[in-house]
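Morning, I've got a small favour to ask if you have a moment. I've dropped the whole record in just underneath, so have a look.
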Amino acid sequence: MTDFSSETNGPETLSLNGAEPDFAIGSDPVSGSPDAGGLAWAAGLSDDNRALVEARRWHGEDGVELNTALDAFRSLQDHLDRSIPVPGDDATSSDWDAFERRLGRPDTADGYEFALPDGLPESFPYSEDLAGRFRDWAFRAGVPAKAAQSLHDDYVHELAGMQRAEAERLGLAEDRSHRDLVSAWGEADSEAYRRNVILADRAMHKLGLNEVLQEFGVIAADGGVRDARVATALARIGSELYAEDNLHGSTGGGDNPFAGDNPNLTEQSRLIREARSDPSRAALVKSLMQAAGLDPAAHRI
């Protein structure tokens, strides 16, 4: 039976079938000492837990705020339920696979779907092969899909920046080479300059160096010269070996660098460059190209 008694010599006590409880209703919430109006559930706490109650201020003037303590526990439990524990030192590959999938890594490398970032030049040589390699790298590293897209964007922008820098470098090399050749051979429209260009071009083709020089970046695909030293050396070779080989183009359309089976790519590049920068030269270049059956508009003239 439950029995209530009213003793005047101490705080009210609750007797459960005659047994005395470990605390009094009027006890201090932390220490368990009598304190009118308090809740004494914390009386049996260890020293560490009583210190925690004090530090967290889970007690008020009227005693320990049990709801506050339970709310804090529930919040912590919710956080733990949502957390993703990092595999330990003894984790298996399966443990790591499950961990990476929970972080957002797709099940296979093909699960990454990359969109091209904004701001890329139209000439950027992006390919599916490049995207495929990046997917493999990201998957092996366990990168989540969202993070992989960010890394992909930075990587592509870096490549585009390198491409722009290389194009600028090559353009400066062509300009510098042209100035050096003008210094050595005279103005670009002079007979001496024209003769040396023809000799250099003839030597390059006779010796089969056209593709090799393009491969090493000495000659641009449009015939632009990027190293004046190579051009002057070829002109000397042409003068020694091929000077009498229809020098002035009496056959094969030599007077028109756009005509013939062996077009003069170096001279073409010079004329195209002049036509773009000097409208007075554009008409002449257009007529030469049209005479050779070419469309000037295709070369932005």
About this structure: The first strand starts at residue 2 and ends at 5. The two ends are 110 Å apart (CA to CA). The chain is about 50% helix and 5% strand. The first helix runs from residue 47 to 55.
